[in-house]
Amino acid sequence: MLTYTCNFACDHCFLYCGPEAEGTFTLRDLTRVLDQAVELQGIKDIYFEGGEPFLYYPLLLAGIEAARSRGFRTGVVTNAYFATTVEDARLWLSPLRDLGITDLSISDDAFHFGQKEETPAQRALQAAADLGLPADSICIQEPTVEKGGEKGEPVIGGGAMFRGRAADKLVEGLPRKPWQSFTECPYEDLEKPKRVHVDPFGHVHLCQGLCLGNVF
After folding, report:
1. What mean pLDDT is predicted for residues 12-32?
2. Which pLDDT band holds residue 150 (cuts at 50, 70, 90)?
3. Among positive and negative, which fits the CA dihedral 106, 53, 158, 169?
4. Each residue of 78-91: pLDDT tens digit?
5. What is the phi/psi pair of residue 101, to 5°?
6. 125 and 106 Cβ atoms separated by less than 8 Å
7. H/E run at residue 168
8. Using 50, 70 and 90 to split pLDDT, how confident is the model at 54?
9. Cα torsion at 9, 14, 16, 17 (round to 10°)?
10. For helices 27-40 and 57-69, what crossing angle results, to 10°?
11. 3-state secondary structure of 74
12. Average pLDDT, the chain
């Protein structure tokens, strides 16, 4: 998590990111985390997320280069705010292609861009295709109440995870359950995790809010 700062403050954000959020990696701390990842001898992929990592573009490029030099596959998650035109998006994305990233995940949904017919994410996807850069879109739907649970009980559809800001902003009118019924995580394998998040303060999140420790 390169930074908690973001140009958006989306209702579904499980990290409470936004323009006023503080916390950004330094290059020194970033390379320390990458060196520790090498020592673990099991990590294959390093993703640069946020917040919005492109807000700290030179640091993002340096981090990708450092990760690639250590043998990691790399990816980036972005809302592509910079893609004012397809041509400009190619300008921003061509260095990532040259560094050899293996995935570019671009948020493209109503939480970020409302109901616009053309979005920065779509322009960035077109630019990535022009550059031969592997890219895909992330589209999170607002939660809805659907039928189909046990004994016809209502279930919640859509893609939002109810943690962070989503637990404050998106729960009105949705069915509730007693907290005692939550006996397993629907999102992560907490016993054998396949990924963790490291934030700019060194906290290693097994799941956002559940910290294994601190690498600093």
Report:
1. 93
2. low
3. negative
4. 999 999 999 999 99
5. -70, 150
6. yes
7. helix 166-169
8. very high
9. -60
10. 30
11. strand
12. 87
Q: Which residues pair with 5 in a beta bridge?
A: 18
Select from 127, 124, 130, 135 the least CA-distant residue to 101.
135
- As a residue count, the chain comes to 216
Rounded to two decimals, the pTM is 0.85
Per-residue burial over 64-80, b if 16 or more Cβ lie within 10 Å, else e, is: bebbbeeebebbbbbbb
- Let me know: does 131 contact 161? Beta carbons within 8 Å: no
Is residue 4 within 8 A of residue 24, CB to CB? The reply is: yes
**DSSP letter string over 77-135?**
EE--TT-SSHHHHHHHHHHHHHHT-SEEEEE-SHHHHTT-SS-HHHHHHHHHHHHT--E
Euclidean distance between CA atoms 188 and 181, whole angstroms: 17
Please report, to the nearest 10 degrees, the dihedral formed by the alpha carbons of residues 190, 195, 200, 201 taken in order.
Answer: 30
Give the tokens for residue 171.
């729960």
Half-sphere exposure of 115 (CA within 13 A, CB side): 1
Burial tier of 102 (Cβ tally within 10 Å: 0-12, 13-18, 19+): middle
The Cα–Cα gap between 32 and 42 comes to 17
- SS3 category, 65: helix
H-assigned helices in 15-83: 27-40, 57-69
